[in-house]
Amino acid sequence: MKKWYQEPFFDRSSWIYENLMHLNLSAEEALVVLMINYLNEKHLKITNDILCKRTGLSFEHLDRVIGLLCSKKYLDIKATSKTVSFQLDGLFESEMAKREASVTPTLFDAFETEFGRPLNQTEMQFLSDWMKEFDSKLILYALKEASMYRSLNMNYIARILENWSMHGITSTMVEEGKHLGRKKNS
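RESULT FIELD:
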């Protein structure tokens, strides 16, 4: 059974335009979403090179935007031995995806601010994986802890989170200082 947004009469482009303010997209993210939607509607091939050329974004900037769209669950990239498809079904899926998207930029922004630069694809994947396993507050506290020790790298932050998880430390415990005195990383 087709979902409402898969019906032939449904105008995805119009829906995206009408709901841009609710999707929490940056200007670049909106541009990439609209371009992917356009290329899909026209049944045209989509590659990073084509997206760079059509959007005017650099490869690195496009890579970052695609990573953010994937982490927000708006974009799903599926690869087979013969094709790669860029699917935007997550835009239409649920209110839950929209709520998660409002949390995601905050974490990404915090990391980029603390690191003093945009996150690369690998770092975004780390963060995306952590968001599935840990409370957002706990991830932010681990970032602050790493910053205090001037060890701003994802592996160090991962060790902090793993250690806290192993010792049952929660964000509330960190807020109350109950995590102090425990070994912070391996």
